[in-house]
């Protein structure tokens, strides 16, 4: 009779990744947030106590624990403690309204909800809307805050004297259910296993060069898979030092970049643009910054050139993917930023990516098709949603819903979401192409191009523009500029000026909101 060793001997989970880093680098600074500073040994020990505290209040293996909170040291610790307990993390976007939060809580079946002082009212209001939530955990924030009554306190759970019960957790068990931002319909819960997330960490470490020597600033919301799993998780895996903040405003970011001598920083294009436009921007304050990352939406080529000229020592990466692939899928590296501007590059280490037509055949050079993937990063499927799971995996590839072209070197450029393609006068127009053209106008700070219903064109190409402070711009100037440089059917038929574009906290433009806002106009 052959003897099979305990599966725990071979186990690799998100929590094991932290444990092994703590054994390698016990005295290295792991987490800095506000006044809190933890070494890897401190962080790992705290996570174990916190996991025992979760068990003590009845969180069982496989239970869903929802987190509705801004970035903090507590969020970082809870992420790993939930994994160590064998429970399932359900991170929730704190910009949602109570009924939207309640939808996720109900759909996931979460019984425990962790929140902070600033979001406690929203958490309570959402939990009261016919959800299964029975208990709350109060988490301290980046700035000192008062505990909320009738909630389990993070610090009390982390002082739990009881040992953590043995956990029968395997790499193929569920680690998290991450709800997609639902830019089209009700959010879908992508089910990601420990090994999906960890294979994705490996791709990030190799392709995005996440390294032990990094001092990384994590400023975008940790509830979002990009900050949580492309940057924070891999940084813990290799042993970087991590500065955490929940305030991604330019002046605060510039202060932290300077004060902590940050070497690695991720932000969506909107935040990079905000830094460049800040009166407090001074390249000297970013003297230590060596690696800059962007994603979530397209970096305008003109802004890319400005970054290259004002921060010449910063190497830039464009990272593309989606929640369902944990989330990294393709990458454009530093050497190709200006050679292939606007491209999202090629598939990363553990991903296979194609651009296909409706018959699942690879498209030719310059033809538009849909991006599809195969990868161990991929989700198991959508939680309690067999129909949308089937549609997503049709033909045994994962369908991204993004439309793209491939050039003669195999570089992929996303042209649009399938549903953002504008059909005007019988022609297809990619909003992205029109946006790039409008960004060439010096007075433009930000632009989003959408299609609005029109009796003549079916959809009229409409540009919504934020003008730079101190500049003037008219509708006629914008249309004339576009008509000079591109086919007239692509040029905007209408131009609207606004103070700000609606975005979700990960920096993604909410074109759906713009379409709703201007449909009546």
Would you summarize the structure shown here?
With 521 residues, the protein is an alpha/beta fold. The chain is built from 15 helices and 26 strands.
**N-to-C terminal Cα separation, in Å?**
76 Å
Q: What strand line-up does the widest sheet have?
A: 2-1-11-10-12-13-14-15-16
Uncertain regions spanning at least 5 consecutive residues: none
Per DSSP, the total helix count is 15
User: If you compute it from the alpha carbons, what radius of gyration comes out, rounded to the nearest whole angstrom?
Assistant: 23 Å
Biggest sheet descriptor:
9 strands, mixed
**Helical proportion?**
25-40%
Description:
- This protein is of the alpha/beta class.
- It folds into 3 domains: 43-163, Rossmann fold (3-Layer(aba) Sandwich), CATH 3.40.50; 196-418, Rossmann fold; 421-519, ANL, C-terminal domain (GMP Synthetase, Chain A, domain 3), CATH 3.30.300.30.
- Helix content is 30%, strand content 25%.
- The chain is built from 15 helices and 26 strands.
- The strands form 6 sheets. A 9-stranded mixed β-sheet has the order 2-1-11-10-12-13-14-15-16. A 5-stranded parallel β-sheet has the order 4-3-5-6-7, with helices on both faces.
- Helix 1 packs across helix 3 (73-85), helix 2 crosses helix 3 (73-85) and helix 7 (194-207) packs across helix 8 (225-238).
- The longest helix is centred in the N-terminal third of the chain and has 17 residues, at 40-56.
- The chain is globular and about 70 Å long.
- The N and C termini lie far apart (76 Å).
């Amino acid at each position: 009779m052959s003897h099979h060793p305990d599966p725990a001997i071979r186990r690799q989970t998100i929590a094991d990744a932290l444990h092994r880093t703590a054994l390698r680098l016990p005295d290295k600074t792991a987490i800095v947030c506000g006044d809190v500073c933890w070494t890897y040994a401190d962080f790992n020990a705290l996570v174990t106590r916190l996991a025992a505290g979760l068990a003590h209040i009845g969180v069982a293996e496989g239970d869903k624990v929802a987190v509705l909170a801004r970035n903090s040291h507590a969020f970082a610790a809870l992420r790993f403690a939930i994994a160590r307990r064998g429970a399932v993390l359900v991170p929730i976007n704190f910009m949602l309204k109570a009924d939207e939060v309640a939808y996720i809580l109900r759909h996931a079946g979460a019984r425990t909800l962790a929140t902070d002082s600033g979001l406690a009212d929203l958490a309570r209001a959402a939990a009261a809307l016919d959800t299964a939530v029975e208990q709350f955990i109060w988490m301290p924030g980046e700035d000192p805050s008062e505990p909320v009554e009738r909630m389990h306190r993070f610090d009390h759970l982390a002082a739990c004297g009881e040992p953590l019960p043995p956990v029968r957790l395997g790499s193929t068990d569920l680690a998290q259910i991450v709800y997609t931002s639902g830019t089209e319909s009700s959010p879908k819960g992508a089910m990601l296993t420990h090994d999906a997330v960890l294979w994705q960490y490996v791709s990030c470490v190799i392709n995005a060069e996440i390294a032990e020597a990094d001092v990384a600033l994590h400023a975008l919301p940790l509830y979002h898979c990009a900050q949580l799993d492309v940057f924070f998780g891999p940084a813990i895996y290799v042993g970087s030092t991590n500065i955490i903040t929940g305030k991604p405003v330019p002046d605060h970011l510039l202060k932290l970049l300077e004060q902590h001598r940050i070497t690695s920083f991720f932000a969506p294009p909107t935040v990079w643009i905000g830094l460049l436009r800040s009166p407090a921007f001074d390249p000297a304050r970013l003297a230590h910054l060596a690696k800059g990352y962007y994603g979530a939406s397209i970096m305008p080529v003109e802004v890319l050139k400005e970054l290259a000229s004002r921060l010449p020592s910063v190497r830039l990466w464009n990272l593309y993917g989606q929640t369902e692939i944990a989330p990294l899928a393709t990458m454009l590296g530093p050497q190709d930023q200006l050679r292939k501007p606007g491209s999202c590059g090629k598939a990363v280490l553990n991903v296979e990516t194609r651009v296909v037509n409706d018959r699942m055949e690879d498209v030719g050079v310059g033809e538009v098709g849909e991006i599809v993937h195969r990868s161990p990063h991929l989700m198991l499927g959508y939680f309690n949603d067999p129909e949308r799971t089937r549609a997503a995996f049709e033909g045994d590839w994962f369908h991204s819903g993004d439309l793209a072209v491939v050039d003669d070197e195999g570089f992929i450029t996303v042209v649009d979401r399938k549903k953002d393609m504008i059909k005007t006068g019988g022609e297809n127009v990619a909003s992205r192409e029109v946006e790039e053209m409008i960004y060439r106008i010096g007075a433009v700070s930000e632009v989003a191009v959408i299609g609005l219903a029109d009796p003549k064109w079916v959809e009229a190409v409409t540009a919504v523009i934020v003008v730079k402070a101190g500049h003037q711009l008219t509708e006629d100037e914008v249309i004339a500029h576009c008509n000079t440089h591109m086919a007239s059917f692509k040029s905007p038929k209408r131009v609207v000026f606004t103070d700000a574009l609606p975005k979700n906290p990960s920096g993604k433009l909410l074109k759906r909101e713009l379409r709703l806002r201007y449909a009546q106009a």
